[in-house]
Structures are given as C-alpha cells and as structure tokens.
Automatic annotation (TrEMBL):
TPR repeats lie at residues 163-196, 197-230. This is Tetratricopeptide repeat protein. Pfam families: TPR_19 (PF14559). Gene3D superfamilies: Tetratricopeptide repeat domain (1.25.40.10). PANTHER family: CELL DIVISION CYCLE 16,23,27, CELL DIVISION CYCLE PROTEIN 27 HOMOLOG. It comes from Mesonia algae. Keywords: TPR repeat. Coiled coil: none annotated. SUPFAM superfamilies: TPR-like (SSF48452).
Amino acid sequence: MRLTIITLLLISNIGFSQNKLTELNFDTKYYDAVDNWVVFPKKETDSTYAYGFIYIDQMAGITLRYGGTLKIEKDKFVSSAKANNSMIIHRLTKKTNNVYQFSDKQISELDLQKEPEWLSTYKSNENTAEYLKDIGNHLNHAGAVDKALVPLLKAYKIEPHLKGLEFELSFAYNALKEFNKAIEILEKAIENNPNDYQFYRELGYSYMNLEQIDEAEKTYLKGIKISTSDFEKSEMSVNMAQAYFRKKNEKKFNEWSEKTLKYAKEGSQYAQYIEYFKKEWNKE
C-alpha cells in the first residue's frame, strides 16, 4: 500500500555489549548483517543460542543458513554444536528483529569461514543487471530502501530499461522522499514504455508529495485508464481523495471518493479511509 495517510518467526533479536557477552544488547537489523555471521536469542529455558549466516538468495530473498548452537563461557562464545554444511535455512521477513553480528575475532574463535565457500554459488552472476535488480527488490521489500539504492543504481547503469528496475528504483527514491529523483527516473521509464501503470502510480505519488496536485491527478488518471487491477485503481483514487481532503476541495474530494468506492471492495481498507475522511470533514 502506498498511502501518505497513515498513522493508522522466524527469528528474534539478540546482541551483546562490546564489553561483556553476558550483557545482551540487540542493535543490528537483519538486513544490515547480510553476508555476515549472526547469533539469535534463546528462550529463558534454553542453555544455548542458535547462530547462522545471513545472505541474499536472488530468487527467495534475505535468508539465514543455520550454523549450529553456542553458549557463553567466560565472556566468550563456545560452539556446543556445529552444523557443518547445514542446508537448514529460514527466509527472513520484516518480522525478524535485531541480531548480533560476530566480530572477526569471534568468527576465528569459532573456527568459521568469514565467507563460506557455498556463498559463491549465490553470487555467480552478481555483476549482471538482473541480479542487482533482484537484490534491490529484496532490500526494498525488507524496508532497507537506502541499501536497495546501491545495487539498483548499478543495475540502472548497465540496463536502465530492464523490466521491473525503474519501478524498484523509483519506489526506493519515493520511500526516501527524494521525489524529484523518482520523477526523473519515471519520466524516462514512461517515454520508453508508456503502458506500465506502475510507473504512473509511482509518478503520481511523487507529484502528490511535492504538492503538485494537478500533475498528480493527470498522472493517476492515466494510470487508472491503463491498469486492469481494481485494487491498484482504488489505491490511486484514494490517494487523490486524500489530497483533496487536505486541500478542502469538496467537489474534487467527492469525485475521487466516488472513484475509490467504485474500485475498492466493500469494507476494504481504502473504502474505510473514505468513510473516515467524510466523518472528519463533517466534524469541521
């Protein structure tokens, strides 16, 4: 969902202070620990912690490969069970909390490879635009849009009109509130392919956030005309309804409210937003 309204396990988090491993402190996002060894929490009743290696699978997304279990003795990690060549994996999601990332010294003490041999299998085509786009997509999905920009911009230099790339790049820019940069990408994308409604959806969002309401409306109307998805049409419509609600333009608000309700399923979130706007309008 791309609205501006909005104030509406796999594995949890663990971390250790710099001084004592017995002092737990969880401070690393799982997507900040990609290509690194990390440790996860245990239940109060458990005596060991699980650890593993986080990487990105081009097809499946951010993933943990289980490494084994360990415990803490005299402020040091001690491996209690090492899963050599383990194929036990978990897909990590936004619900995954913070993790603790091993230092180089701790990796050495546990007799681990800083970069496991198997990792190269997942990076055999890491310099291709397709790979870089997919990695950016997974980082966008995780909410790490600033990190997503790095592979996406590399891909853009290689093949700017690769399917899905311009959308991912503009999505990241919009999420970072760099709306003018998103517009620059999207204008070129539409020039190359004027029949992708996602470009108009993102472009309308950019204009709306820059308070260029007329341009946003023209753009969303084009997107609605092209799209075959009622859900997407309702999303673009409710964004414009919200914009006119804020501007207190009742005529335009009613127009876009009708469009939203035309495309949104009865009782859906977008339909509920319209009801909320109407109630708030009547309170004034």
